[in-house]
Amino acid sequence: MEFGQTLADYVKQISLNNVPQRDIAVAKLAIMDQIGVALAGVGEDPGVKVQAMVDRCTASEATVLGTPRKTSTWLAALVNGTLGHTLDFDDCSSFGHPSVVLVPAMLATGETQNRSGREALEAYIAGYEVGEALSRIVPRRADQFHGLHSTAMFGSLTSATVSGRLFGLSAEQQRHAWGIAASQAGGITGNFGTHTKPLHGGIASQAGVMAVELAASGFESNVNALDAPLGYIYSVVAAGNMEGVDINKATAGLPQWHIADTWRLKKYPCGYIAQGAIDAALRFREQTGLRLQDLTSVEVRVPHLQPYFRVRPAGEFSGKFGYEYPVASAILDGFVVKKTFSDTAFKRSELQSHLGKFKTLEDPASSQHGPLGVLVIVANGKTIHQPIEIPLGDAKRPVPPSQVVDKYITNASEVLGIEAAKQSARMLQEIETLSSIRPLLDCLARRS
Description:
By secondary structure, the protein is an alpha+beta fold.
């Protein structure tokens, strides 16, 4: 029953002084990238609908990105988390989409508590490392975790870690916060391809912020809720199947650092699993000069087909969680961008008339062609095998920092304008030097 105490003690001692520079550098890029994709989500349906509900609240504490509007801390986290997951353009790691829950909590609590950029960065790192620890307890299964979305399952606790660190909770209060957050963990993969998947990020971030403020007020939970009988690990992470559960795997990894080795940037605004297949389709288009109308058939063969990545493409959101639509769009257009996943793009006759040529197959032998499978394309009577490689942006193939900055400025300028986007980029690149993150929030909210 000391797991919670071990984690709490670990969170308290994290300092930039003992974090490797490579992990600090990647953490800063992750924060920047997340804020950018959240701004790019402004105006999309999920954020608009959630914002309309939040506008009924009169609180004015924490910033909603892209607007001068403020609301309560936990509702700001809800909106910003939903915005950040709307395009599915946000980062990935071993425990799902990390920054979509960590960054909204960091901004909301950091702003209201008037924390420095250094303190915000340390809190982000603490939340990331707790997420990594929790994800090592039980092996991830083919259906993520028995149908639960890992971002939502781990997110409420990692968000509570960030917020708790910035709020200055004691170790015991932090354990209470985790207990409160644990009762709010969840999110089903059956909702992938709908407005509800982006909401998973918002709910998880909100849950952590709310849990921390309750714990700070003296609100209690089971301080051993993480590993207690019928607790978080038993009931949520392992779902009663404790075979293979090993808490020592979590604690043994705490002295290490994982951000640089696990963080994955997305080049395209859709499910991460398709990123390599899109790259392969674009290489095929460039190398062969063939176009969609020239193809007889395209099979996307992958060593393992994740159950949650079999969503039938039927519109802008559902098209993000399968291979066929983004691969077909890449061959048709030569790019995959935000507008690729609009209903207008989806309904184009020049795409719909060829989409039936595409098929996805689970084929263990496909790994002989490429680490992530192969595109088997028949065109003009010939069969072409295009390997699916590990995508650029993966921790094994990191992109230059300048590309992350470019992605941020492209996304942020849609809402902030180019000059404010560049100004905020400079602030985020040097976040550890900011005496307060409030001026950054003013810039991101168009208040300055």
